[in-house]
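Field reference: "sequence" (input) and "structure" (output). Example, 5-oxoprolinase:
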Amino acid sequence: MFSFAIDRGGTFTDVWCKIPSGKVIVRKLLSEDPENYDDAPREAIRRILSEFSGTDVPKGSPIPTEQIQWIRMGTTVATNALLERKGERFALLVTKGFRDLLYIGNQSRPDIFDLSISMPEMLYERVIEVDERVLLAQPSSCRLDPQPGPLATGVTGESVHVSQPLNMESLRTELTSLLADGIRCVAVLFLHSYLYPEHELAAGKLAEKLGFSQVSLSHRVMQMVRAVPRGHTACADAYLTPCIDKYIEGFASGFAGGLKVLFMQSDGGLAPVNQFNGSRAILSGPAGGVVGYALTTHRQAGGAPVIGFDMGGTSTDVSRFDGQLEHVFETTTAGVAIQAPQLDINTVAAGGGSRLFFRSGLFVVGPESAGAHPGPVCYRKGGPLTVTDANLVLGRLLPDQFPKIFGPTADQALDAEGAR
């Protein structure tokens, strides 16, 4: 049986395979090369099976799965979509009166003496204020005026007042207008939905009935009290999950039969396809690297801490391991606060494929990336100038050490002269 471990990055896809004889095979392909294949991980699997299974698998034909024991994959699809702001268009449904809740955020100032404050860009395209309101029930000792609305019981057994029932007709009109504008995804953030989720569930059911392809309910994505981080996480889920789903669908469509595929999550654990979503996939690729170097480079008895530095094509990830995996539960990646368990990895939008621009006598880097297609100039596909080209001209990259997978026919070396 064949076992595959795959790192599908923004520029390169690396494939590790243990074939039936016990020998380990490693392959490297460009993550995007539409002139030669539709999907890099699938193409690598096809080539390895054709070479070592004794049965040729023609290009373009469904790949048989009888000899595949398992596939484990980490991907930077979500990471790069967030860094480059190439996620899906979506709208935020929020309790009436709280339109600017996520824009205001928690009012933190990371650099308190900076006079030039840059507000993070919101992921959502539109905000819909939904006429609904739930209030926490007052204790019997409270002397304030009684709260309006009938009492209801929350998921913890605590009581809430439904002061404003969900206005379904008004919501239907707003959702219909979103569909007319071409928006097919929504994130739903209602106050106190962590305790009383019925309004979010009803809004989500209506959205799905009307034809929305992605509905991210904040109480399902992250069931926590604080509305701001819960809302940001739901937005990240609505923004990125369609990218993940699209990739998984494309990858799985080329196989004949069922697949045993597990995806690496941001926390370093593996998840089946149906549980892999955008908010837990942001550090999917980098997390695999942390787990890998933690198991191979750290000496448990008296070993010094290990620093992990992973410079890919689109992003650079830095982490640390000192005998145990360090987890955080609230992180900010590319200006977006995410409330989900993640390995403690710092990511910046600066990789080998980050584009170089010449402005006012200086080179400016990124955050735009050339990706794998067309890629940097030296990939021989008419791409733009990037950090990789600069490193090649400066002699930091040696063409002889790279696989010959470039050019229109995917069989040429890096083009140092073109980059120069």
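The radius of gyration is 24 Å.
The chain has three domains: 2-82+247-280, 84-237, 354-419.
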